[in-house]
Specification:
The protein is an alpha/beta fold. Helix 1 (27-43) runs parallel beside helix 3 (74-92) and helix 3 packs across helix 12 (231-242). The protein is built from 12 helices and 9 strands. It catalyses: a (3E)-enoyl-CoA = a 4-saturated (2E)-enoyl-CoA; a (3Z)-enoyl-CoA = a 4-saturated (2E)-enoyl-CoA. Its EC number is 5.3.3.8. Pathway: Lipid metabolism; fatty acid beta-oxidation.
């Protein structure tokens, strides 16, 4: 089953999560994304400056961890967490600007995936950004909080996202300064991401310098990626969900 595709458009690489499902982050999907990123790294060596755009088909960008896949297995929970942390490390070290074109809901781990990119653009007519942990009774791991703190500078907005579990639309995200642009449809969102990507590639930045500077900018996130202290709590919620 194809989990994602990569299209090359000039100096842009468009990675699309395929299918009409929720794009849950199980190890198979995460491995597919990481494999695609590795191919893009290899293919971009001849380009002075490229950009990555990540989008998704259907009504979800990603609905977070695949708790149904994990079931009641602590090992599967730990594996999912480890895989997602590795993917975030890949994106932070990626040798080009990255843009999340959020064309559907981005929830919990899906929110984290979107905000692991340098820029977030989003469609107005469908979808919201949602850290659901308060609503489903989950502790947020330190590495999630490190990323949220780095990406959301306003403490009032962080409180909304984390402690109120507020579902933010594209326009609300723009107003709060956490979404870079909002568009009328999925097609317009991807088009807007492409236009942004083209502007960024025209800068002609050195890709290794870009990667190293991003790693310094988000060192606090990288320092937290070695461990997830909440996997046992996540396992308890997964077991409860499996009984519903």
């Amino acid at each position: 089953m194809c989990m994602c595709t990569v299209e090359k458009k000039g100096n842009l690489f468009i990675l699309t999560l395929t299918g009409e499902d929720e794009h849950r982050l199980n190890p198979t999907r995460i491995d597919a994304i990481r494999s695609a990123l590795n191919r893009i790294r290899s293919d971009s060596t001849s380009h002075s400056c490229s950009a990555l755009i990540t989008s998704a088909q259907g009504k979800f960008f990603s609905n977070g961890y695949d708790l149904a896949w994990a079931g009641s297995s602590p090992d599967k929970i730990r594996l999912m967490s480890s895989k997602l942390r590795a993917l975030v490390a890949d994106l932070i070290s990626f040798p080009m600007p990255t843009i999340a074109a959020v064309t559907g809901h981005a929830c919990a781990g899906g929110f984290i995936l979107a905000f692991s990119h340098d820029y977030v653009v989003m469609r107005k007519d469908r979808g919201f950004l949602y850290m659901s942990e308060m609503d489903i009774g989950l502790k947020i791991p330190a590495w999630f909080m490190a990323l949220i703190s780095c990406k959301i500078g306003d403490p009032v907005v962080r409180r909304e996202v984390v402690l109120k579990a507020k579902k933010l639309t594209a326009e609300q995200g723009v107003k709060r300064g956490i979404v870079d642009a909002a568009y009328d449809s999925a097609e317009e969102t991807v088009k807007g991401a492409i236009e942004l990507g083209e502007k960024l590639t025209q800068k002609g930045w050195n890709k290794q310098v870009y990667s190293e500077n991003r790693k310094q900018l988000y060192k606090e996130i990288l320092d937290q990626l070695g461990v997830d202290e909440t996997t046992d709590d996540l396992n308890k919620v997964s077991i409860a969900a499996s009984k519903l």
